[in-house]
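INTERNAL TRANSFER SHEET
From: sequence group
To: structure group
Subject: M28 family peptidase

Please process the attached sequence and return the structure record in the designated field. Keep the field labels unchanged so the import script can parse them.
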Amino acid sequence: MRIRTLVGVALLSTGLLACTEQAAAPAHAAVSADAKTLQAHLEFLASDALEGRDTGSRGHEIAAQYIVSEFKALGLQPAGDDGTYYQRIKFRRSSLKEGSANFIVDTGAEQVELEFGKEFLMGPSAYAEKSEVTAPVVFVGYGLVSEEFGLNDYANVDVDGKIVVMLSGRPADLPSEEGAHLNSSKTRFAAERGAVGVISLHTPAREEVRPFKVSAMYQRAPSVTWLSPDGEPNLAYKNIVGSAYLDYQAAEPLFANAAISLDEIFAQLEKEEQPKPFELAVAVTMSRASEHEEISSPNVAGILPGSDPDLKDEFVLYTAHSDHIGMTQDLSQDDHINNGAMDNASGVSVLLETARMFVEAEQAPKRSILFLSVTAEERGLLGADYFAHFPTVPLQQIVANVNLDMPVLLYDFADVIAFGSTHSTLGESVAEAAGQYGIELSEDPMPEQAIFTRSDHYPFVKKGVPAVFLMTGFTAKGEEENGGEIWGQFFAEHYHRPSDETSLPINYQAGVVFTNINYEIGKTIANDPDRPRWLPDSFFADLD
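Return from structure group:
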């Protein structure tokens, strides 16, 4: 999962629910997850031999082979390419050539050259090895467009053939999940209106959350983009030739000829006012050189056919990402392997055990079940996004997605949080499934994190597929454990670090309950005569 550390919220939210006694498994349950099997899967996938399962690495290939072998053993039908379990994806890894990034502001009176790494940041191009653009500049507020929320930061300005300057972040009054979706669409909004460049402006408010110098520390990391079957990079809009992230302390030259000063813009933000778009009457030149490398990494897909002649051509999709972040470059540590036990060997283990449960159940599900382990989640949900664009079954026949990402199986949880449950009828399925095991369904305790837009279900949501995924809640069953504290400690001390490994005190019995709940969710969806549907008032019911 791609998530910001938020220890304080976890620690303060432990009182969301009173602890409940664990209920026995439902009397009608014919199958159950097995703790030892979960442990065996997790210990292999998070072993040092797989070296952190980075996208395109040998270790991730081994993980994929392991998942394929499990699918074969269960008798799942291949659902990859060419009659195999693999959906092989080509990726382009792009790096910025050292010393090639330039940013020059022409005010008419002078040319101001900014310093890379200290005043502006610039990533590589996924399209061109060399790129340069010079164009007039237009300020477009936050750069957002939404009829539902009454936003149009491009009103009354023409940005065709121009470079747009937009504030980082979004208005404070936007709901978190909806705002996160709009925020991720900023480049698209600019490209659709003919812009040739995008400058994102770091703000004083953003500085308090994430200092500019922290972002600069990650500047030299390469970017990864999937390539379509015809070799085109995804979502890298060709007309956006240049892009940069600019520190607000270096942005004054952009506003040298403006009717409204930069200080006035920031004063408006402090009052939570929406700045209006206007021409800046300056020109900017941005140039860079990029190096490209092609890598490949697979999704793995298998199908359990449904039993109902009318419903078997519809699919309940389970997803879990099999990749992690590979080896650390921090030489100060003795352990350099980011094993990713919780992130996301745990989720893949749950997926594999869920598949076994469906195969061994007394009655086959009416709808077919599609099990999909995806690659490159840590690179930006790329494996799931590729499958959503190039599905191996008709996308309109996928009725729902149950995503399994990073269950923190370190305590005996008494509640679960289901991201997406408030947007579709899947919320009813989750509450019913959890209740069968004496587990409460809690509200999202950290809505500002907008986690519903930050895992592998999100590409399917953008394609219209209702989705849900569970996280262990912050309430533990026994007084001797503080679930929120344990959850928060994991993110503070182990998330995306070598210590996320099998030496953690993993509670595999909690893993059994978590797996059983996710199985029951999928079974309910598979056997319901009606497809899940978006709730009428959900923003995600009709995405552009």
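Handover comment: Residues 301 and 372 are 4 Å apart (CA to CA). The two ends are 25 Å apart (CA to CA).
Transfer complete.
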